[in-house]
Amino acid sequence: MNPPYLLFDVGGTDIKSALADDAGNLMGIRRVPTRRGTPNPAESLVEQLHGLGAELLAETPLVRPEAVGLLVCGIVDEAQGLGVFSANLGWRDAPLRDMASNAFSLPVGFGHDVSTAGAAELQFGAGATLGTKVRNAVMLVIGTGIAAALFVDGRPLSAGGYAGELGHSAVPGGLECPCGAHGCLETIGSAGAIAKRYSLASGTQVRGAREVLEAMTAGDPIAARIWDEAIEAVAFSIAQLCASIAPEVVIIGGGLAQAGEALLEPLRRSVRSKLSYHREPLIVPAQLGEDAGLRGAFLKAREARGAGA
């Protein structure tokens, strides 16, 4: 494997790490809980990453990485290398790129987890199967929360890390949100909201949206209502994007995407009903699964190595 890259995809719940060769083939993938609740969360993260990197390299003693790819959650300023804010992990304006570069003594390619995973989906995953180069796209990740990566005229839209916070855009029927706003898409359209709202409405505790889908399939009218309301909320937000950035394709990822056509078919139908002259996007499932972030980290690491060459 020459030259190798050391890759990290940091989420609020866990960290995925791996090595990659110059073709982007992933090796030694591992997943561990993200260290949380420490007094200095940025320093604690970099310390944890250094330990994970040491473990990977101990298994491949002849490997000498030439660059690191690091993706993190929250609001990210890629140009400045800053973790601007992470509600889950607690840092503010943390110079994570420089901290990681000092820890590893290597160039570090740094980015936002969802936006960079979206770039990987366009290059290696769903976008690569469309038969034509997509220049305008949305990667919509629907899990515990909702985040989006936006691509306009072939360029990722960052706005200093603030673009793509679709989960915190207002939708009809939205509820009070922990972010402090009212009406956020996440409060009705996320997998977490589907499970929570069904549990409250039915009196039956469920662990996730999958159980709500199963209840709906079995004929439960409460589950059907909760599911339909979630789809309508997501479709509303997609229709707003069709009127603003006009995506050619919307790639649906995250845990809720595992519902397949039970989600995608009514979502397509609902989006179509909300459009007139607008370009109707293809709505397709993500294909890289849990590896999307690592494949995105590879893209960032490759850029960093080239910039340092």
Secondary structure elements and pairings:
Blueprint: E1 5-10, E2 14-20, E3 26-33, H1 41-59, E4 67-72, E5 75-77, E6 82-85, E7 92-94, H2 96-104, E8 108-112, H3 113-124, E9 137-142, E10 146-152, E11 155-156, E12 170-176, E13 182-184, H4 186-189, H5 191-202, H6 209-217, H7 221-244, E14 249-253, H8 261-273, E15 282-285, H9 292-308
Helix pairs in contact: 1-2, 3-9, 5-6, 5-7, 6-7, 7-8
Molecular structure report:
It is built from 9 helices and 15 strands. It has helices at 41-59, 96-104, 113-124, 186-189, 191-202, 209-217, 221-244, 261-273, 292-308; strands at 5-10, 14-20, 26-33, 67-72, 75-77, 82-85, 92-94, 108-112, 137-142, 146-152, 155-156, 170-176, 182-184, 249-253, 282-285. A 5-stranded mixed β-sheet has the order 3-2-1-4-8. Strands 11-10-9-14-15 form a 5-stranded mixed β-sheet, with helices on both faces. Helix 3 crosses helix 9 and helix 5 (191-202) packs across helix 6 (209-217). It starts with a strand and ends with a helix.
Short key terms for the protein model shown above:
309 residues; alpha/beta; globular; 9 helices; five-stranded mixed β-sheet; 15 strands
Largest sheet: 5 strands, mixed
Shape: globular
- Give the distance, in angstroms, between the N- and C-terminal Cα atoms: 18 Å
Strand order in space, largest sheet? 3-2-1-4-8
pLDDT < 50 runs, ≥5 residues? none
Mean pLDDT: 92
Count of alpha/pi helices: 9
Radius of gyration: 20 Å
SSE string, helices as H and strands as E: EEEHEEEEHEHEEEEEHHHHEHEH
How helix-rich are the residues, as a percent range?
Answer: 25-40%
Q: Which structural class do the helices and strands define?
A: alpha/beta
The share of residues in extended strands comes to 15-25%
Total number of beta strands: 15
